[in-house]
Amino acid sequence: MRTRRLLLYIILIAFMFIYLLPFWSAVTTSLKTGRQVTMTTPIRFVFPPYFGAYKQAFSELKRPVLNSLLFTTFATIFSVMIGSLTGYVLAKLLKGETSRKLLIFITLGIFLPYQSILIPLLRIITKLGLYNTIPGMILTHTAYGVPITTLLFTNYYYEVPDELIEAAKVDGASPLKVYTSIVFPLSIPAFVVTAIYQFTNIWNDYLFGVVLTRGEAAMPATVKLANLKGSFVANWNIQMAGALIVAIPTLFIMIALGKYLIRGYTSGAVKG
Comparing C-alpha atoms, which of 10, 17, 56 is closest to residue 33? Predict the structure, then answer.
């Protein structure tokens, strides 16, 4: 038994090193000069570390990171709230065949590839005067996020006991009062899981950013990060430093809300 457990730990540790090797390579590369990058292997740590790459990457990414934080935060809030309200209507107010058909119609948007809607999207955003603006990015990501958030919340609200809703209606509560007093407090785990999912997806998006922005007025961090590679020579140390900087917000979200994320997953598993 001990031998089997020891073997299991050895295998898990080996997989951990394999999994973390790309991250370690990014860290070591970001702490080297351009010459050291070409003269050493990616996994080799050079002492003393060189922080000039971080300084240059931060100066280039400062505005795009702020842009991404702004439109990602608002798009996440809007898409999650709209998805929650729509899911509540479909799961607890409409029900039946009408609810099922509407849910299928809304969730069809999940299966639309980004590339298939780029031309009409670009025309609509331009006609609205929102091209290369933060509101344009917020509107785009909110609209594209509503189908998946609606699906997640609808499935979650199906598990909320109808008896609670009916008891509140008997007491004279309006549908909005039922949502704010009963449904919303019960769905905090779903809010956390959906918000983390949306924030990560929007933050990591590249295609909408490269199509709907020009210059740094509303350019997201992912687009600027791709431009750090250089024109003739790949500045790997600067690009790795930039990649680690861009990863900080999502890493912070995962660390700060990790226990709530696990709670949401286990809640869904128990309900399922």
Answer: 56
Spell out the residues 6+ positions from residue 195 whose beta carbon is closer than 8 angstroms to its own: 76, 77, 80
* pLDDT tens, residue by residue, 243-262: 989 988 888 888 877 666 66
Count of alpha carbons within 13 angstroms of residue 33, beta-carbon side = 5
pTM, two decimal places: 0.83
Domains and CATH numbers, the chain: 1-50 (no CATH), 59-266 (1.10.3720.10)
Q: Which residues of 202-212 are buried (b: 16+ CB within 10 A; e: fewer)?
A: bbebeebbebb
Dmax over Cα atoms in the chain, in whole Å?
76
Pick the closest to residue 160 from 140, 141, 186 (CA basis).
186
Mean pLDDT of 11-35: 86
Q: Report how far Cα 81 is from the mean position of its chain's Cα atoms.
A: 15
Which of 52, 43, 61 lies closest to 249, judged by CA?
A: 61
Distance CA 142, CA 99 (A): 22
CB 64 within 8 A of CB 52: no
